[in-house]
Amino acid sequence: MEIFYIFIFCIIFSLIGYLLGSVILGAIITKLMKIDIRNKGSGNVGSTNILRALGKKFALLTFIWDSFKGWLSVFISLCIYINIKNIIPDYYSLCGFVIYFSGLFAIIGHCWPITYLVKLIRCKFNFELAKKCSGGKGAATSAGVMISMSPWIFLISFVIFFITVFITKYVSLSSILSISICCLLILIPNLDYFYMYNIIENNSMISISSIPNEFNNPTINFNKNWQYLFGVFIIFFIIVLIVIYKHKINVLRLLTGTENKISIKKKINYI
User: Fold this and answer.
1) Under a CB-based contact definition with an 8 Å cutoff, are residues 142 and 109 in contact?
2) Pairwise CA distance, residues 201 & 195, whole Å
């Protein structure tokens, strides 16, 4: 019976993530400004193309929301998971990774939002026509999921991303590389995994100064729980595959040396 409950909550977490992920701020901003982002730059609604089309301020705003919804989806699922301890007592400490289904589906929702599905059905599954309603490429939302998982993994990936961008000027390569390395880092224990659980479980959300103490005195030591780490690894491995798939055109351009580089100056342009 407990397995059944876990399955039900996986569906609930996935729906939470997908609905949040489907809120595409880049598309909303460009629609309000009456700009057809599909005819600008790469035609994508992610922060990189917003940077090219509208500049740094709107790109930063888009990036923050796209990242935040990845974190928020996991956080909401976490708050629910904490309150079902009595329903799944035998699996509670083993199945903490299920909250990351919300992060996975937040990325799926960001890449293929509800508007895409509606358009696809209306077009009788004409993927070329439905593409006009597709979302971003999932990199920023993946960053939000990273933050919810481990602040240390996020910081490492963040540094790798900006070093790669600085050296190569390729955002696509930087995104793929940093997210892929993040996936491998998950297999390293003792990086404060599930730190939000320990903070909430010990009622420490109000006092920021108490957070380090909760890191050192966890209710459940997920840092050494290999079932948990492996579960998160599998979920994030799927995320990596999604991000690479969404960057498939960029990968082809990188291989042929025709990928666009970015230059951050007073005016954003291609190099």
Assistant:
1) no
2) 10
Close Cβ partners of 16 (under 8 Å, ≥ 6 residues apart): 73, 76, 77, 102, 105
Which stretches does DSSP call E strand in the chain?
A: 262-263, 269-270
Beta strands 262-263; 269-270: pairing state: antiparallel
Residue 108 in contact with residue 245, Cβ under 8 Å?
A: no
- C-alpha 74/C-alpha 104 separation (Å) is 9
Quote the number of domains for the chain.
1
CA distance 224 to 218: 11
**Residue recorded with tokens 């240390």:** 152
Per-residue pLDDT of the chain (271 residues; tens, 9 = 90+): 678 888 898 999 999 999 999 999 988 888 888 887 777 767 778 887 888 788 888 889 999 999 999 999 998 998 888 888 778 777 666 677 888 999 999 999 999 999 999 989 998 888 888 888 888 889 999 999 988 888 888 888 899 999 999 998 888 899 999 999 988 888 876 665 555 655 555 544 433 344 344 333 333 444 456 777 788 889 999 999 999 999 999 899 999 988 888 765 544 443 3
pTM of the model: 0.84
- Helices 47-54, 56-82: crossing angle, 10 deg rounding: 150
What are the tokens at 238? 């799927």
Q: Which domain holds residue 143?
A: 2-270
H or E element, residue 256: helix 248-256
Angle among Cα 235, 238, 244 to the nearest 5 degrees reads 145
